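Quick look at the format.
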Amino acid sequence: MLAPRILKKLEEILGKERIIEDWEGRLTYSYDAQVEEAVPAAVVFPQSDEEIAQIMKLAYEEEFYVVPRGAGTGLSGGSVPLNNAIVMSFEKMNKILEINGEDLYAVAQPGVITLDFQNEVEKKGLFYPPDPASAKASTLGGNIAENAGGLRGFKYGVTRDYVLSLKAISPQGEQLKLGAKTIKSVSGYDLVGLFCGSEGTLGIVYESTLKLLPLPEAWSAMLLVFSTLDEAASAVSQIIAQGIVPSSLELMDNFTIKAVEDYKHLGLPRDAGAIVILEVDGYKESVEREMAKIEALLTKMKPKEVKKAKDQKERDDVWAGRRSALAALARISPTTLLEDVTVPRSRLSQMVHVIEDIAKRYNLRIGTFGHAGDGNLHPTFLTDWRNKDEWERVQMAIEELFTSAVELGGTLSGEHGIGLAKAPFLPREYNEATIEAMKSIKRALDPKGLLNPGKIFID
């Protein structure tokens, strides 16, 4: 709990109705989608930048910690409130402030749900490509904090590629303007790029200007069934080698297929070694041309079965399985650990073999799915933390997984962030000088270390 004088000052800023002090209420904000660690000292719900600034000035004066939080859908402990921190929730800052079809941008507050935002801009014939699997629940602010990727990352990139400008509050309670609404802007340092993916450790974003595109006029989706995971990974490489850039290119192994089918009953082939789901979009002529190229490759890729969506319902059915992969796997065991490693696309088959080998050697259940088009895989460990022997094997396996990804020229995280869970492994990817450069930026912007303590770095 916070000192009574601090709570009193927070109540003066927000009113008592926008502060949670009771244990049960605070407990709800003690975890994200995967990591449960600590109960916050309080939860506050600002509704304006002025209120955020006042809270941060109070935090700077009284030296208490603040953890910004969207919907808590993160998977690395990024929004878990360590060190008796307060949680600053953006549930009440959830407005789309502007959709500009002439200049192709929209302005939104951080608490806007990603899918709601996508739907609103599509009503105006516009398109916001970032598409995390958590889009139904995750927020734009959380997407920016984690630089979220998603199913359309291969063709369209990640959240950072669509952030034109940000408005934020510094740890000292000062206003920050980052970037511009223009497509080009090289005035000073790229602070937008610095804040995207900073996991709420440098400042608190309260407004974002996001780039939009014209809505693609056509699409075509296809599901390819393969006998083995290796054949599926090879097919992905062949598609990319032909210069084809699907908007989405996803992969699911047999374990995940069975889990999804048990959960959703979509008619997925339970005997498949793996499936590849792809979609191309754009102008009708280009979609037809790209799909023709893919179909010409089928004799070389030799899938067991090909299912091409004929209408919107079949398209939705094709993607329903992939989007429910985590939920389906989570039903199998008491503890689910969804990991996030990314390797160069040319090393995808090698990474698949590494995961299969780790599962066998450590006698673990691992379901693998992910964004094969950009080399981003999500090996999902199904276990029970109460089984001490198995839990130890899981920890050793995860450590080997991360080490192998880096050795293959990859990275610890393609889209979930480092947060709390991966902080101990950061030195596997970066040397001491590089990590110290990152820490120096943190110290310069947040000298008292008040924002989201204990994340990214192990001191």
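Next, a different chain entirely:
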Amino acid sequence: MFDHAATLPPAFWLLAAIATLLFGMSKAGFGGAAGSLGVPLMALAVSAPFASAVMLPILLTIDLIGLVVFRGRADAANLRIILPGAMLGIALGWLTFGHVDGRWIKLLIGIEAVTFALDRFRAARSTANAVLSAPTFGPGIFWSSVAGFTSFVSHAGGPPIMQYLMPQNMDKMRMVGTTVIFFSVVNFAKLGPYAQLGLIDLSNLGVSLLLAPAIPLGYFLGYRLLHAVDMRGFNLVTAWTLLAAGAKLIYDGIAG
């Protein structure tokens, strides 16, 4: 099981450890879309399909941790809208897989994420108090479908769903709890379609197991930092990570 691990370059292990920490921190609620940078970071040393295969068991493990840590903190009204929307997006990604140019998807989502992040910076500078808003069916279905689709085809579901949830200005713990359940359902729902398409490679499980010790460390750091910042700081950190993720998606879309 661990034979493949011995052939990997040292640079991979450094980048993979950082990526796992980023995933853990972002899934714990600190950094929002920072996890979107994980696979591209690992792809600097290995192929993107290999990086995705290695990270899949890690992502599912982090999702299970999140379901325990954030149990009872999700917004049920939002989940009733965005979970069905995500399933529509996953189904569309499954049906169109191989017919959609992932570069264009990354470019469009990257541009949208950067635009949204800049708007969040503008909102953060406002002296007016943030107003709590209710879930809305139309935008919720749209953005969650986009998130399900982009998560399926390019592992970039974070920016779209944040564009729906962040303007609601809900409590940070409730928002994180909502995204935890959302992406747990999305990631586990992708297993069947991925297996049918031949995208699951368990031969790399040994590499994933060697990276596993970084999971609780990243999660612990993210959870502590989540409690340490106020709501304004939380929004700013999320906006910065959206900006970084969007810029990386634009670069990937242009560079191919």
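The two ends are 32 Å apart (CA to CA).

See the schema section for token definitions.
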